[in-house]
Amino acid sequence: MKRLLKIIFALLILLLFVGTAGILSQLIDIPWLSYEVDELLYNYPWLFTFFEWILLILGGLLFLSLIVVLSVSGRRKRLIVKNGKNRIEIPKSTVEQLVEDAYSTIIHPDKTKMIVKIKGKEKVAVKLKVDVRSKERFQPLAEEIKQTIQSALDTALESIDSHVTVQLREKEPTESTVLGKKQSRVI
Predict the structure, then answer these.
(1) Which helix (H) or strand (E) holds 114?
(2) Nearest-angstrom CA–CA distance, 128 and 96
(3) Of 12, 24, 79, 187, whose CB neighbour count within 10 A is largest?
(4) How many whole angstroms separate alpha carbon 134 and alpha carbon 139?
């Protein structure tokens, strides 16, 4: 199936290349190619429709590439914080590393699943999502995590305001944790 898709894609690219060369030969006088394309257009009038479709496809591809370029530029690897008239750029990986280091001092990272989301314009906002088995049992620990991460960010980012939010999500136990080791896992 992949081979068939590759062949179809390659043929489409070849048709686009030939069509583009044909259209270009009508705009710019290319010695051999312009003469051949003129003769083909005279003998086969359906090639006008082919060239129109080539132009539509190329325009669509250009529009899609514009959308991709605009959507990718929105995802930055640097966090830009405005402090008055000054702009401060901080790598997001640095903030993530600070959060993970502060988090690992309280709970080992393998014990829970953690997701870090970082935003910021006026201040650095860190949203931490932690999967736990019981929200009630881990609520005091969530406050401790929040305080530890907040103090680590305040120490590292001295002049920048920061805000930490810890969200606990209760996760359901999987079947492998429900069954004991001595019970059979074959159903």
Answers:
(1) strand 113-120
(2) 10
(3) 79
(4) 9
Nearest to 166 by CA among 122, 132, 120: 132
| pTM for this entry | 0.49
Give every CB contact of residue 105 below 8 A, 6+ residues apart in sequence.
Answer: 148
Predicted confidence (pLDDT) per residue in 73-129, tens digit: 555 666 666 666 777 777 777 777 878 888 777 776 666 666 666 676 667 777 777
Cβ proximity of 94 and 160 under 8 Å: no
Residue 176 identity: S
Q: What is the DSSP string of 150-172?
A: HHHHHHHSTTS-EEEEEEEEE-P
On the CB side of 126, how many CA atoms lie within 13 Å of its CA?
33
